[in-house]
Each structure stands twice: as structure tokens, then as C-alpha cells.
Amino acid sequence: MTLEIFFNEIPSPDVYISTKMISSYVENFRLDDALELFDKMPVKDIVMWNLMIKGCVDCGNLEMGLRLFDEMPEKNVISWTTIINALLRYRMIEKAKGLFWEMPVRDTAAWNAMIHGFFVNGRVEEATSLFEMMPDRNVISWTTMISGLDQHGRNYEALLIFRNMVAVGVKPTSSTFSCAITSCANEGNLCLGCQVHGHILKLGYAFDAYITASLVTFYANCEQIEECIQAFNEKLHPNVVVWTSLVTGYGTNSRHEDALRVFRYMIRLGIVPNQSSFTSALNSSREMEIEQQESSEQPLIL
Q1: Which whole-number Å values give the CA distances from 112 to 58, 85, 139, in the listed order?
Q2: Cα 239 from Cα 213, distance rounded (Å)
Q3: CB of 145 within 8 A of CB of 127?
Q4: At 237, phi and psi to the nearest 5?
Q5: Are 146 and 172 a contacting pair, CB within 8 Å?
Q6: How many Å apart are CA 104 and CA 148, to the nearest integer?
């Protein structure tokens, strides 16, 4: 690599240049080269330490990352959050929890990481409890809660969190809205879903592809097929998720011929179906065959 050639020509590279080289090694998964250079450095600042720990984790060597974390002469909140995220990624929840409470200073990112980790590991009550203990919350905190509760079938609680978020004046992001609409769809709460849709229009998120997909699914689940089509037609996204939501929505409402029509049109437009698209189309095709078979078996009444 060109950077490595230039680096090797420098007689005594400083910490900044060496950190750049370590970063390049890590990005190319050359962990051994990164560690060798790191060990050679007579002076290492906290940025280099943090980079090396993250590099070990990203390259799949958690053990080395933990060892470097323990050897650090000085740690900042980034050091702690990096290793906690790594432990959560490897589902070492108890060790991550222990380090979290050992942190001298916990920033919002650390709290968010721990809440997300609890949800990923199915520990919903602990995630909720930690959220309630947070001294400061940002939009990521609220969105993590809404998404986590929704993923564990706690849709009503997710919607309560969303309402509280809006009530305290936190502005939702497109991700927040998508999670909230998904909760409305799963809960079948047409009234609140329409209110959320109103917020989406007001804040200008209506043309976001994932929000569109969530709205289509929401209206389909609430058996509001015309509103479902209208949400889809607001902006024709060349996005497989949006098209899949309409195919599935038609199928959910037993409009299987329409589902297959949309599926075929989607393919003609060059949008490559995903597994969900195929599954929905196959389900509609199967249902149509059953309906046709039942129709042909109807007895003749004279």
C-alpha cells in the first residue's frame, strides 16, 4: 500500500502518523502488523490505545482487546464504551454490565449501548430499568427503547415511550418514526398510527423509504387498503423493502391477485426481490390456487 511505503521512509514517525498507519492496518484486517507497530511505539496516546482496542475487536480478537484495555495507563469514556460494546457483541452481558457500573463517568452513548445490549440478550426488564435510571436521554435512547420493546412484542409499551418522548419535546428521527409506526402496525392501533403519520408529514419524513414501508404495512394490518396504496403512491421508491410491504399488504388483505400483479411489475422495473418478497408472492399464489380449487369443487345447485 502507498501509505505503508511512505511511512517506512519516515525515520522517526510521531504518534499522529503512527496512529494513521495502525488505522490503515486495522481497516485492511492486518492485525498482526498493527500490533507490531503499536508495540514498537515508545509513546502511545489515548487515541492510539482506543484505536488498537477497537481494531482487535473488529478483527475478531476480543481477548487481545481486553488485555490492552487492562494495560491502558489511562482510560476515557471512549475506552470504556468501546470494550463494553465489544463484550455485548460477543454476548458477554454480565462482564459488560460489571464494567458499565465500574465506569467513572458514563456518557449517554454508554447508557444507550448497555440498553441495546440488554434488549439483544432478551433482558427487557433490565433495559427498561436502566432507561428509567438514565440522567440524560437523547433521541437514540428513546429510539432504542421503542425498537427494543417492539422487537420483543411489547408494542403497547413502545407506543407509550413514543408518546412520552414527544411530550417532553424530543424530536423523532426517521428511525424513531419507523419503529413507532411498526409498533402501531403490530398493535393494530389505527388512531395512534394516524397521529404518528401526521407527525411524519409535519416534520417532512414522508418520503423516507423505510417510513413509507412501515406506513404501508401499518395501514395494511389495520385493513385500510386504500390508505395503504396512497402511502405507497406518495413517492415511488426503487426500494425492495417498500415494494415488498405492498405485496405483503395486499396478501394480508386477501387481495392475492393484486399482490402478484405488484410482484410482477416490481420485477419488470428491475427491482430484485428479496426473501420476504418471494415468500409473500408464493403465499398469495398458494392462496389463489386454494380458492380456485374450492371454487371448482362447489356442488351444482339446481
Answers
A1: 20, 10, 10
A2: 9
A3: yes
A4: -85, 135
A5: no
A6: 27
Residues 6+ apart with CB under 8 A from 232: 212, 216, 242, 245, 246
- Residue 302 pLDDT > 60, yes or no? no
Give, in order, the Cα–Cα distances in Å from 42 to each of 12, 15, 73: 11, 9, 14
Q: How many CB atoms lie within 10 A of CB 185?
A: 24
Average pLDDT over residues 225-235: 90
Distance CA(208)–CA(56), nearest Å, equals: 36
Instruction: Read off the pLDDT band of 144 (50, 70, 90).
Output: very high
Q: Please report, for residues 43, 84, 168, 198, 236, the alpha-carbon distance to residue 143 in angstroms, rounded to integers and kept in the order given.
A: 41, 20, 14, 18, 27
When pLDDT is cut at 50, 70 and 90, the band that residue 72 belongs to is very high
Query: The whole model's pTM is what?
Result: 0.81
